[in-house]
Amino acid sequence: MLTNKVSDQIKRSKYISRDLSWLRFNYRVLDQARDTSRTIFDRLKFMAITASNLDEFFMIRVGSLYNYIDYGKERLDYSGLRELPFRKKLLDYAHRFVNDQYLTFNNELTELFDKSGFDILKVGDLTEIEQKKVDSYFKNTIYPLLTPMVFDNYHGFPLLMNQLLTFGVVTRTTEEQKAQDRVTFVQIPQNLARFYEINRKDKIIFVPIEEIIRWKIKKLFRNVEIVSANLFRITRNGDFTLEESDDIEADFVQEIKSKLKTRKKGRVVRLEIERNPSAFMMKVLKERWTIDNANVFTITSMIDLRGLWQIINHRQFKDKGFKQPASVTPLSLPAESVDMFQYLKEHDVLLHHPYNNMEPVVQLLERAAEDPYVLGIKQTIYRLADQSRVTAALLKAAENGKHVSVLFEVKARFDEERNLREGERLEKAGCFVIYGISKYKTHTKMLMIIRKEGEKVTRYVHIGSGNYNEQTARLYTDVSLLTTNDVYAHDVSEFFNVITGHSRPNEYKYLLTSPKSMRQQLIELIRHEARNAKKGLKSGIVIKINSLEDKEVIDEFYKASKAGVPIKLIVRGICCLRPGREDLSENISVKSIVGEYLEHSRIYYFHNNGDPKVYGGSADVMVRSFDRRIEALFLIVNEELKKEAINILYYNLLDNQNSYIMREDGTYSRKKPAANEEIVDVHKLFYKKVFEETTQEVELV
């Protein structure tokens, strides 16, 4: 009866729960692992991604929910549920997902291993010679690194690390004629490979490291009876949103460093464990971590599917997966090599990644570092690649005596340590480094190069939706703008003054920024379309973003829909808006594109009665984007570049290979081409010559 009430309450809400919507997104990723047209290696890749996604979901979203539960704070989900009923609903749904995840892995993927040139085997499945090799590996490499940690009346409960595979070993000793059970924990060091590899003539055998340790577990417990040995893995709360604003005057870098340490001790929100674990051990763990069966996930095969990356990235299989086509020349750049400093003085350039590579930006920065006429470089950095060429260029610029200002966002989730390390390197080289803006997260992506050219100074500006990361630029779709337009340059200069000093400009001409005014400016653009619709003028909105969650903007979409504005939303992940509900959102459609590339670009289109306003940039329609982040959207004013951005939206709307259509109840169905309908796959289309030459006028609404 209670379950029905909860379901009815969720259905009545005019908003979709953010967290339930996210789990539906991960189902769309899982759908890629089920796609039989993909190679086994690509299917395993998407399986590993679902596991990584779920880890972050539990650390951040479930962790955030427990911040409210554990500290007695009230929380009302978009579904209308309070903390505890929502916890039950959310964890029930997560259990369903994990069950489907492992059904896919066990029933659809493992049967393909043998004929694909590899297999995952236990030690008992190996030949005698192979077992000797494994035995030697255990003795020489694994055994010296293992540390049994007992918990009993004489030893405190050890600190078990987040997301490490751990054996809980129950042993029994007889002392004074009384049997006593104890539990000892053996964590598998994270610097050991997930699999031990054995080369056979026709295939590679991957032996899970936990199976090797299980095989030799008695070596750690000599002359002691082992009652059971169960593998498990815990996920701890990694969300610090409640604490981050407590003391904004504190030394911010030290605050972040201290929180990185507490992440290791965060409350346990999930326990993944093998089937049929020791009841004694489970009682100990549940009591210790204040968890119940809802937090316990029984895993039917390999725990932690992220380990599949070792197989996916194996040198022998590197050519067996998706082959990325060569990048194409941006529409707004000539095919032949040009002097970018000269070219940008006369032309704006729109880049569409990964179809256009990131080289024009990186090479411009590298050249600026060496150019004697460049006076300074200013840049915001959110995430960087390993061995980053961006960092190398900034270091070189500083060594060459140029003024270098860098804002490193040290709250870039899970990249905090790398950004702190890279920031300290730049500081030592003489760069002016700012580590974030206290209570705000700097998410905007901006670069400005100041160059003296004769009697004047030219400012070269880059602004976009993607990070300055050469690695992810090959995997994420993003848009960005290169320009020397004085209006952009003035706006970006002012914006840098805001984030590095105490400037408060009245307005920007080409930028919408947060946390000051972006939400209200977007709302005004939506209202303008509604007013046009009411006047009988042409209207329409098309927006492509990662996530849609802000209630104020959602409510404006609902009002605009009632006014007759056709609204088409392309939302990759979370969508809290209900499309197609009678007398609420009948004119709103929502689709999600999930495929080979992670859809990361943000493009906002407002019809404006035939004179479209089109923006690109870093911001999604989320509360955090408007209230807790420094973000920027840039107006595309060049007519040819505007056409190109509109075409990107147009073909995204046409896509029928990677698209999922959202229903009114929040579920999704995969879009399939109708009979005789042309196949449109945006992840292939944007590489084609035909699109390189396409800047025609198209109707989006």
Notes on the structure:
The chain has 701 residues and is of the alpha/beta class. The chain folds into four domains: 1-111, Methane Monooxygenase Hydroxylase, Chain G, domain 1 (Up-down Bundle), CATH 1.20.58; 117-241 and 248-313, polyphosphate kinase like; 340-506, Endonuclease Chain A (Endonuclease, Chain A, 2-Layer Sandwich); 512-691, Endonuclease, Chain A (2-Layer Sandwich). 35% of the residues lie in helices and 22% in strands. The chain is built from 20 helices and 27 strands. Strands 14, 18, 19, 20, 21, 23, 24, 25, 26 and 27 form a ten-stranded mixed sheet that branches. Strands 10, 11, 12, 13, 15, 16, 17 and 22 form an eight-stranded mixed sheet that branches. The protein is globular.
Give the class-level CATH name of the largest domain.
Alpha Beta
| Coarse shape | globular
CATH architecture of the largest domain: 2-Layer Sandwich
Q: What is the CATH topology classification name of the largest domain?
A: polyphosphate kinase like
- Number of continuous helical runs: 20
| Major β-sheet annotation | 10 strands, mixed
For the CA atoms, what is the radius of gyration?
Answer: 27 Å
Q: Tell how many strands the DSSP assignment holds.
A: 27
Low-pLDDT sequence parts:
242-250
